Every structure is written in C-alpha cells, then in structure tokens.
Amino acid sequence: MTTATFSDFKSAPMRRLGTAGAIAGLGGGLVFGILMGMMGMLPLVGMLIRIENAIVGFVVHMVISAFIGVTFGLTLGRFVTSWVSATILGLLNGVIWWVLGALFLMPLLLGMNQMIFVIEQAQWMSLLGHLMYGLIAAWLFIPLAKRG
Predict the structure, then answer these.
(1) Axis crossing angle, helix 14-38 with helix 54-75, rounded to the nearest 10
(2) Which of 50, 70, 94, 144 could covalently link to 130 via disulfide, CB atoms 3.0 to 4.6 Å apart?
(3) Residue 30 contacts residue 127 (beta carbons within 8 Å)
(4) Which residues, other chains included, contact 121 with Cβ-Cβ below 8 Å and sequence gap of 6+?
C-alpha cells in the first residue's frame, strides 16, 4: 500500500480535492458552528433563507461550510505542500471568507446594507471564528486528500 505525499496534491484528481475539501469544510464548520451557537448567532444565519431558527441556521451554516471547503480544495488544494503552507492557506481562506461572507454578503442578503464592511466587536469575534474554521479545515484537508 502506498501513501500519498504532499507533492501528489499537484496531480490529484479534482474530484479527490473537492471531496476532501467538502469533508474538511464540514469539520471546520462544526467547530465554528458550535461557537456561533454559543454566541447566539445561528438564528441570524437561518434568516438567510428567511427562517429565524438556530437549528435551521446551523444547517445553513454547514452547507456553506461544505461549499467553502470545496472551493478551498479546488482552488488552493494543489498549493498545499506542507503543514506550514496548509496553515497559511487556511488562515488566508478564513480571512477571505470573513470579508466576503461576514462583512459583505451576510449584511447584503439580510437587507442590512448599513452594516456592510462595518467592523465592531461582533465582527472581530466572527474573524476569530473564520480563522479557526480556515485552520481546522486546512489541517483536516491534508489527511483527507492523502487518503484519496
């Protein structure tokens, strides 16, 4: 039985990278979702589909987490060459989705245009959650992508 190496990611099939990214995204999303639940933010996420409910919000959050994981796997997975690069790319992924998702898309989709790119205490907490998501997802991506 052979074991995949980091260099194998460069030639890995897109399907393997996408699947590994989706599962890794669910792992990162689970941790971030628990934190969001503790902060009372999940009903707001549910409002993205017009249902203000924590359970619905958690499901929506997990779908988004899987999607973000897939995009990580397909766009950045080939650049994961070590645990260090996974850490850097995971943090970068977290920051990108914090800006795109939490600071722009979420307020826009919820009709809270006055909150677009506003950074207060809640947004800083969101950044920490997004960074944790990015790290966990990137670290989970490595063994998942190697399993192929």
Answers:
(1) 150
(2) 94
(3) no
(4) none
